[in-house]
């Protein structure tokens, strides 16, 4: 799997059936090798390739102990390539493909899902290389630990009969998680796509369990489950290996103390088991240290991408709830300032929801944190029943994100670190885009943060890649944008003193409920967002397209 391409270097992730020396050779220029490391009886490698030629797209080959294993002999697919950008790529467009929520099998709970949008995109790329993006950004629910396929459930029932504790329809142990990744990533089209397009990933709740870290009382209830410690340890350890390692640049990998220990260990099982438990320690308003930072950032040309952890490091202390602890928020603010043209923020949960749902979540946050036990219990029950745990349910974080975007978009001395334009004035970014998933429908919304704002701010939501929203919920997602419904729910929120947000937003496209992938193209000062859904025969068709610029 090709994960990062940074200048003249690239990183590739792979899993092998036994210990080996992995070597990558790139036609024309570039090579790298690394030994596998072992954990839980599995073997993995992160290979850094050096010496890549700028502005090139060259095929590569992967060897294990001098035996070529990729591309496979007699493969019907095009040769995988590593593409680099020009040495001076300031004027070169940037293209990001993004989406979330992908089931690895076509059938779930006895029903057939619509065609997989990632498969459709892969097939198109095979015949039209000009559509190749710079990066694939996957925004959560890459696997579903709590909604498993018939094949995985058969495996789980066998393990439970043999004494492995846990539900018969949900994964618990690291070994069980590996079956989810194998099932999802062995899809031939997706396997080829991952081998030729760089990708970054962030988790959402289903990598662990539905509503992961929705509240402090949720954590208390889960801790009482006899299988939870193994579930959280195996889930976070497997996420670290299968998804997070590839988010890091070669320099970040070299600097990561856990990766160094794992790579040097004869068997890293105990290291990773302890790590999975340690990084699940809840944050609090008093203790703002981050046990491990899952959020990450990178630059592609003149575009800065910052991807946020919306799940693991939440502060759940009543009265001080936050999407990010203070230390990680400060890191984000620092990365949000700098010398770039476009800021793209990856957030598995949408920042701007349909307004009626926003006010409902804000109302629920107040009720759930009531000083009256019965009211708080009612609010907590509603929160869990209806999944009311997006940014609006973390009101202080919602407002802080809007205020950060306002400061950036207005430019000026209050946005330190921005490049200086003509006449010595600070220039705001050409655009700010929030990429999200989770909600199983797609839409585009624009934020209005005031007349002094020169930078357009957009919410781009694309979900699911391969799943579906239940039919009864679709009308609710539509009416949640209607002014009359919004006015009614806002009136409800006012009864518990929820203030009107400092910004407004309106929907420009959607909602679309089919499987989809989205493209964000950034060219000079112009950003273009495009959402494509799948047809019945598995092709892509346009659903929405929006251009915006300062």
Automatic annotation (TrEMBL):
<dbReference type="InterPro" id="IPR056702">
    <property type="entry name" value="DUF7800"/>
</dbReference>
<dbReference type="Pfam" id="PF25077">
    <property type="entry name" value="DUF7800"/>
</dbReference>
<dbReference type="InterPro" id="IPR018946">
    <property type="entry name" value="PhoD-like_MPP"/>
</dbReference>
<dbReference type="InterPro" id="IPR029052">
    <property type="entry name" value="Metallo-depent_PP-like"/>
</dbReference>
<dbReference type="Pfam" id="PF09423">
    <property type="entry name" value="PhoD"/>
</dbReference>
<feature type="domain" description="PhoD-like phosphatase metallophosphatase">
    <location>
        <begin position="131"/>
        <end position="240"/>
    </location>
</feature>
<feature type="domain" description="DUF7800">
    <location>
        <begin position="1"/>
        <end position="82"/>
    </location>
</feature>
<protein>
    <submittedName>
        <fullName>PhoD-like phosphatase</fullName>
    </submittedName>
</protein>
<dbReference type="InterPro" id="IPR038607">
    <property type="entry name" value="PhoD-like_sf"/>
</dbReference>
């Amino acid at each position: 799997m090709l994960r990062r391409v940074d200048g003249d270097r690239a990183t590739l992730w792979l899993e092998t059936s036994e210990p080996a020396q992995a070597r990558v050779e790139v036609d024309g220029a570039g090579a790298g090798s690394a030994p596998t490391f072992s954990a839980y009886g599995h073997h993995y490698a992160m290979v850094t390739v050096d010496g890549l030629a700028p502005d090139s797209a060259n095929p590569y080959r992967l060897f294990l102990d001098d035996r070529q294993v990729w591309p496979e002999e007699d493969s019907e697919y095009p040769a995988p390539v590593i593409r680099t950008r020009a040495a001076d790529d300031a004027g070169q467009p940037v293209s990001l493909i993004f989406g979330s929520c992908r089931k690895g099998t076509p059938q779930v709970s006895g029903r057939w899902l619509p065609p997989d949008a990632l498969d459709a995109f892969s097939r198109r790329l095979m015949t039209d290389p000009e559509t190749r993006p710079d990066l694939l950004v996957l925004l959560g629910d890459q696997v579903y630990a709590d909604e498993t396929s018939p094949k995985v459930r058969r495996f789980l029932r066998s393990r439970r009969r043999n004494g492995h504790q846990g539900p018969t329809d949900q994964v618990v142990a690291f070994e069980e998680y590996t079956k989810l990744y194998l099932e999802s990533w062995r899809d031939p089209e997706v396997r080829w796509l991952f081998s030729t397009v760089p990708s970054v990933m962030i988790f959402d709740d289903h990598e662990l369990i539905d509503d992961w870290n929705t509240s402090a009382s949720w954590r208390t209830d889960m801790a009482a489950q006899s299988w939870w410690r193994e579930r959280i340890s195996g889930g976070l350890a497997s996420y670290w290996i299968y998804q997070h390692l590839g988010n890091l640049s070669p320099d970040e990998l070299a600097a990561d103390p856990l990766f160094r220990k794992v790579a040097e260990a004869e068997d890293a099982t105990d290291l990773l088991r302890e790590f999975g438990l340690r990084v699940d320690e809840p944050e609090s308003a008093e203790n703002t240290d981050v046990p491990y930072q899952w959020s990450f950032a990178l630059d592609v040309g003149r575009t800065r991408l910052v991807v946020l952890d919306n799940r693991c490091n939440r502060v759940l202390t009543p009265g001080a709830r936050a999407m990010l602890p203070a230390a990680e928020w400060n890191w984000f603010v620092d990365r949000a300032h700098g010398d770039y043209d476009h800021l793209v923020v990856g957030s598995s949960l949408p920042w701007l929801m349909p307004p009626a749902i926003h006010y409902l979540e804000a109302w629920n946050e107040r009720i759930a944190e009531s000083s009256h036990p019965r009211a708080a219990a009612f609010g907590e029950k509603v929160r869990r029943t209806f999944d009311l745990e997006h940014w609006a349910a973390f009101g202080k974080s919602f407002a802080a994100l809007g205020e950060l975007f306002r400061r950036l978009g207005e430019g000026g001395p209050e946005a330190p670190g921005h490049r200086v334009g003509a006449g010595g004035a600070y220039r705001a970014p050409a655009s700010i885009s929030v990429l999200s998933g989770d909600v199983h429908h797609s839409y585009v919304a624009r934020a209005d943060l005031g007349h002094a704002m020169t930078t357009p701010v957009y919410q781009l939501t694309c979900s699911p890649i391969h799943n579906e929203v239940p039919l009864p919920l679709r009308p609710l997602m539509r009416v949640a944008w209607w002014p009359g419904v919004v006015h009614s729910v806002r009136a409800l929120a006012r009864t518990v003193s929820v203030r009107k947000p400092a910004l407004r937003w309106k929907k420009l496209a959607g909602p679309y409920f089919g499987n989809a992938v989205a493209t964000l193209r950034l060219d000079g000062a112009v950003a273009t967002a495009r959402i494509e859904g799948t047809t019945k025969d598995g092709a892509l068709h346009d659903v929405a397209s929006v251009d915006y610029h300062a």
